[in-house]
Write a structure and sequence with these properties.
Bound molecules: alpha-D-galactopyranose
Number of strands: 12
Mean pLDDT: 94
CATH topology of the largest domain: Ribosomal Protein S5, domain 2
Number of helices: 11
Distance between the termini: 18 Å
Low-confidence stretches: none
Helix content: 40-55%
Strand content: 15-25%
């Protein structure tokens, strides 16, 4: 695990912690958000993905408490949430964000890892939530690092860290996500994409092309049913795998499509087509990046989006419109929705000649039709989750 020196973040979070809890924090961690570069809904179907951590973060400060009590505060929240340790189960309403840290605390016990019996915890972020950039996985991993640290453990291998976060989300938040978000955030390195072959899972790094830029256009559109729709797609994939008698949809070959399509109802056949072709697109993008072919990479990103739009049906008119604009823009190689879908953000791969003015023009045109001005971020592939020094 890397220990990073970062004065401004350290000072601000430690100071806020002191103000709120009237004592000193003893652990500090920072975890980045992520973009899904390619590999849409392939992770829980036994396929591959390419993701990158981004230079927007969740920061968490904590201290152990000798009382069996958990106190949690988020910078955007109204008040400190306080729970006795033996009643730390599910919370609802404006406290629902706390299900992530509480889930991690419970997951640590499930993994037989050390955890404090009481703690105070402070969270801040410069990462938009609900944008498909995985603020929830970032929160999970930063929380896991500080809780382990205040329980006396300042090292954990990234694969276990990722599994703890995923377990918290699957079992205690209730979202049946795959390993993409937590795996990327745990393993990321600046200037690299993280490749995950999810059946292992096996993690490796692939250089992000130096001469390319990564832009995110967050529609700010949040679908109220996002988690429910994600779970519905997950169920559809499981149902299709069952009908076809395979463990993983990504073990099916694109060339055998007529065989498996004949065994499925039309809707499930479309879902499977997306997953199987998408997994192949991860392979093709890896090859194109290896050959330094950014134009081809961009074309495959747009293909991925079209498949989301028509086959997996996890896009929205606002996401489609942004991809349409970006795909026709000079200096943009390609663009696609990133993450679960049903709202959130588009990621674009661009040449350095694509400027902020051009991005803003696209944003303004988008706002005229869709009402909402997208949040535009130029991002860099960043380092993964890490403890920070407190001084
Ligand atoms: C969300 C999930 C991931 C993955 C993507 C879609 O981000 O958390 O596990 O399934 O959607 O690829």
């Amino acid at each position: 695990m890397v220990i990073v020196r970062m004065k401004p973040v350290r000072a601000a979070a430690a100071e806020a912690f002191r103000e709120i809890f009237g004592r000193e924090a003893t652990a500090l961690a920072r975890a980045p958000g992520r973009v899904e570069f390619i590999g849409n809904h392939t992770d829980y179907n036994g396929g591959s993905v390419l993701g990158a951590a981004i230079d927007r973060h969740v920061t968490v400060a904590a201290a152990r408490s000798e009382q069996r009590r958990l106190r949690l505060f988020t910078k955007d929240g109204p008040a400190v949430l306080e729970l006795p340790s033996d009643q730390a189960t599910r919370v609802t309403g404006s406290d629902a964000w706390a299900n992530y840290p509480l889930g991690v605390w419970r997951a640590l016990a499930d993994f037989q890892l050390p955890r404090p019996e009481g703690f105070d915890l402070y969270v801040s972020a410069n990462l938009p939530s609900g944008a498909g950039l995985s603020s929830s996985a970032a929160l999970e991993l930063a929380v896991a690092l500080v809780l382990l640290k205040i329980a006396g453990r300042d090292r954990i291998d990234p694969a276990t860290l990722a599994q703890v976060g995923r377990h918290a989300e699957n079992h205690y938040v209730g979202v049946p996500c795959g390993i993409l978000d937590q795996g990327t955030i745990a393993h990321a390195r600046a200037g690299q994409l993280v490749r995950i072959d999810c059946q292992g899972p096996v993690f490796s790094l692939v250089p992000f092309p130096e001469q390319a830029a990564l832009w995110v256009f967050n529609t700010r559109e949040k679908h109220a049913l996002v988690d429910g729709l994600y779970a519905e797609r997950h169920r559809e994939c499981q149902q299709a795998a069952q009908l076809l008698g395979v463990n993983w949809l990504c073990d099916l070959r694109p060339a055998e499509r007529p065989v498996w399509e004949a065994q499925l109802p039309a809707l499930l056949a479309r879902r499977v087509r997306h997953v199987v072709d998408e997994n192949d697109r991860v392979r093709r993008v890896s090859d194109a990046l290896g050959a330094g072919n950014l134009a081809e990479t961009g074309r495959i990103l747009v293909e991925s989006h079209r498949s989301s739009q028509h086959n997996f049906e996890n896009s929205t008119p606002a996401l489609d419109a942004l991809v349409d604009q970006l795909a026709n823009e000079r200096g943009v190689y390609g663009a696609r929705l990133t993450g679960g879908g049903f709202g959130g953000a588009v990621v674009a791969l661009a040449a350095p000649e694509f400027t902020r003015q051009a991005a803003q023009r696209i944003g303004e045109r988008h706002a005229q039709v869709h009402g909402l001005q997208p949040e535009i971020l130029e991002l860099h592939a960043a380092d993964g989750a890490a403890l920070l020094e407190l001084g």
